[in-house]
Amino acid sequence: MFDLSGRVAFVTGGNGGIGLGLASGLAKAGAKIMVAARNPAKNAAAVAELRALGAEAEATHTDITDPASITAAIAATIARFGRLDILVNNAGTNIRNRPEAYDEADWHTVVDTNLTSAYLTAKAAHPHLKASGHGRVINNGSMLSIFGMPLHIAYAASKGGIVQFTKALATAWAADGITVNAILPGWIDTDLTRKARGDMPLLNDNVLARTPAKRWGSPQDFEGIAAFLASDAAAFITGTAIPVDGGYSVQG
Ligand code: NDP
Questions:
Q1: Topology of the domain comprising 8-247
Q2: Mean pLDDT by 10 residues, the chain (252 residues)
Q3: How many A from CA of 226 to the centre of ligand 1?
Q4: Known catalytic residue: 248?
């Protein structure tokens, strides 16, 4: 029921952090992985890590803010592995500032990276997901899909959008046998949040105080949800947004 042998996953931002956690979960369940990200050294290291798990893995240099790069990366996946069953829209970024000072170019960078990329990648992947007969899309949201924070207008708008995009896509593609779900990470220890912790001295204490599990999440915490949502076991689960947050979102 949870076996992904023979299935191929395309993971944006799969070269580190949560993306590599998601990719590792899929690889451990038997899937072949295409890592789609920009940094060549991180791409190579992630491929080595995934291969060490026994998976077939490759990387393709991809900038998900560039539609042509996305199209080329999906084509490279089909050329290498011959099929595509699982799309993970994970790559993301954040630029923090007060709304009244927020730069328009920064807004576009965040929304293009976090939201528009998911639509473009899903569109490019659709014929292959449909052909597989059991296509899966997993979109990465955030606690800022459901909460607000004062320095995060573009990030919160993009991550809120991911949840509604997930619901709309789920309704559109259910008849094609494709499920579409979002995951909503709590506070996870990655490069992204290490920078935030440096910039916001109170963040670490606030996260630990608010998270019932009393710890930061790790990329490994995402292995199980990826393998589950991609598997036949989750065939009737679509349009959901599942927190992976140590209880953060239910803490009163
Ligand atoms: P990382 O900074 O470790 O990962 C970000 C990933 O996105 C990297 O692999 C990066 O690769 C890739 N990426 C960024 N921009 C682009 C681009 N233009 N084209 C292709 N790839 C790109 O952070 P996280 O693992 O924390 O973040 C992963 C996702 O999880 C994001 O969507 C983030 O919003 C989300 N998230 C994280 C939380 C946390 O607490 N850490 C909480 C909630 C959500 P490269 O630079 O090589 O291209």
A1: Rossmann fold (3.40.50)
A2: 98 98 99 99 98 98 98 98 99 97 98 98 98 98 97 98 99 98 98 90 95 98 98 98 98 92
A3: 16
A4: no
